[in-house]
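Lecture notes, unit on protein representations.

Consider one protein chain, 146 amino acids long.
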Amino acid sequence: KIAPLTLWPDDRGWFLELIRLGRSLAAGIAPAQVSAAVSYPGTIKAFPYHLMQSELWCPVQGMLQIALVDLRKGSPTLGARNTIYTGALRPWSVLVPPGVGHGYKVIGTGPATLVYVTDQVYDPSDEGRIAYNDSRINYDWELQHK
């Protein structure tokens, strides 16, 4: 699921409300942990997936090419891929459910900061990982001109 975030700029800078508990996409997640990751231009981080954990992503700096792939057995969209461009120039939040492989590439010339909320405290036994260039996913990390 994807939802826009509202950005309020003024002459001092800007304010961005990332998460209001119980509203929008945050209504679908009970927060257990809040984390942030900074990645440099060209960095690719993909494809972890979780069996139990949901994540609510809110990019706050830079731009990301987010890649999602449905790994849920029995899902009518098993194997389907989706690409989302989001970040400072397009402030959206993205809710990643369990069983969906997810990752991103930092696009543009500056670093990107991703703030995310999970409904579970990190548990390595809940996480699987598929390499960003795995031929079974066959995801094209080059710009897709969407």
